[in-house]
Amino acid sequence: MLYFKLAKTNLKKNYSMYFPFVIATIFTVILNVIMQVMLHNEGMNTLPQAASAKMMFDLGSKVIIIFSVIFTFYTHSFLIKQRKKGLGLYNILGLDKKHLTIMLFIENALVYFVVMLLGLFLGMVTSKLMFLILKKMTGLGNDFVFNLTTDSIVTVMILFLVIFFSLFVYDTIEVRKTKPVELMAGGNTGEREPKNHWFLTLVGLATLIAGYSISVTIKTPLQAIALFFVAVLLVIVGTYLLFITASISFLKILKRRKSFYYQPQHFISVSGMIYRMKQNGAGLATICILSTMTLVTLSSTICLYIGMENSVQNRNPFDVSIDSKIEKVQLDNLIKTTIDENKIKKVKYLSTSIYSSVAMTSEDNRSFRYTELNTRGTQGATLFQFMSLENFNQLQNETKTLTENQLLICSSDDWLEEPNIFLAGREFQVKEVIGNLLIHSKNQPDIGIKSSILVFKDHEVIINFIQEHLPEVIANNSLEKKSEGFLKFKGTEMARQQFVAQLTSNLENFSVENNRLGYRISFIDDDRKDTTASIGGFLFMGIVFGLSFVVATALIIYYKQLSEGNDDRLRFEIMQKVGLSHKEVKRTIHSQILQVFFLPIIVASIHLTFAFPMIQKLLFLFGVTNKNLLIFATITVVVAFAVIYLLIYWQTSRIYYRLVERR
């Protein structure tokens, strides 16, 4: 009973330190409840891309769990530092470390009980609200219903039980390994003035430049995927090293400038920061990394959501696209029959016959040789499709002519202005290089794989060329002739769905009657629904992650100011006793805070600027090609975050001032 009273009293007396920790921990419980409810919701199985959606939320839940563990331990470390003096006093008054351990266990148990009681209740309410928001974002139907499962709640309870038990073990180790006298001085124990570490500074600068270089020099989205986490890791390492080491060197340079250093506000702030810069630098680096993660996550997901229609249109220049092994004439008849059956009046229809892709590599864009069509082989390769001049003229409504040794190149890629090219050893004259065909989107994103259509005089020239110069294609049985059809038409959603359903049925029947010829049909309305569901989920995840990082940033800043305010209280008290005025105290505080407080967000903005090219290329994979949209989303997020950051600065500077000023 005594230990329970002591634990209860301690929590009340340390209310200013425990209250933000409890609020922040409740927030992480809410986040975990939301993610677990979404993950275990049976309605997830009704999504158009159920497997991808569940994988996305599973990954998101793991990220939130890792964040919860790191964040809780980081904020709790500030608590135990400030509690050491009180624990040392108990130790001197007769409570041995075994009794302190019991008291700490009860304290952690009480906090866990409060956190779980409030966190689970608010998590259930919030998860229902967030479920409705997600449903609105994704446009999902009535099959996607809210379902609160026992597994979700039990998972969160076990997670935080493990976290709080680990915190108790950490507290116990800290108390048991520290002497009573050290405990009494624990909150005021500083560090020796650190030395310059030029080697680590250079390493940090090198890793940061390396991370920046990866982002600004990558050429394709595929490279961006492969190198994204490498660049992120390099930037994180560089940020921590530079904040810890370069900041010390910079402060020592300021100290050597007598005209700057020997002024009251500069003398106090610079000397104080040098004294504990190792810890201070790590805290500032953490704030910077969290700020960068917030800016990157929110700007990219918001851009994805706003540019969703742009992405859909880029992937679907036509309302309906058919890719089949059916002969072109037969495909045309099937589609025209379906159009007549559904009484579609205003319709645009294009079709063509084309040979499937052949991968070829070249060092000069002139001499091409065959390569295997696989992930490794297509790096730096061009995928060629072959078309006859007759199909090209019908498709483009042209009247061009070619000889057997001439061809047209249809491509959006840059080609050398060479009159001739060599394909597998055979020379062809390039009569003309044409941009994208009518069946292709003008804004099709460049994802790093070159592709071109080669137009030959006729089908006979194509077959002869392949048989004589590309025998590997015949041997691999990889040459396929396919027909493609493209339609644009208007109508109500129901009428459009009925037309596509009828067309699918006709294609299926014809395929079965003709030895199951393969076909694939894509419909822009279905793609729009699937895209809305997936990108809406991404935005939802972005908001959850963004809120997590913002709260983490705010709480780390709060504890940083609280910890340093308690450390600096005695120094400012002595200085005020010897004549430092309240006005000078306030000016000194603002000088100290301003010198380091805005550094993380400035560096985070620099990180975001260098990350912009990589983010842009990654968004290409989702079909978002509007660079101005990304710039607008990025600037908006940076401005909004800066406003939040200013509010945090205003509040925490008041807390620091109240702690250090002697009235």
UniProtKB/TrEMBL annotation:
It is found in: Cell membrane. It is a multi-pass membrane protein. Coiled coil: none annotated. GO terms for biological process: transmembrane transport. It holds the Pfam family FtsX. InterPro entries: ABC-4_Integral_Memb_Prot, ABC3_permease_C, ABC_permease_BceB-typ. It comes from the Bacteria. The chain crosses the membrane at residues 21-39, 59-79, 100-124, 144-170, 198-218, 224-251, 282-308, 538-559, 593-616, 628-650. Its main location: membrane. The keyword Transmembrane helix applies. GO terms for cellular component: plasma membrane. The keyword Transmembrane helix applies. Residues 63-180 form the ABC3 transporter permease C-terminal domain. Keywords: Cell membrane, Membrane, Transmembrane, Transmembrane helix, Transport. PANTHER family: ABC TRANSPORTER PERMEASE, ABC TRANSPORTER PERMEASE-RELATED-RELATED. Belongs to the ABC-4 integral membrane protein family. This is ABC3 transporter permease C-terminal domain-containing protein. It comes from Enterococcus rivorum.
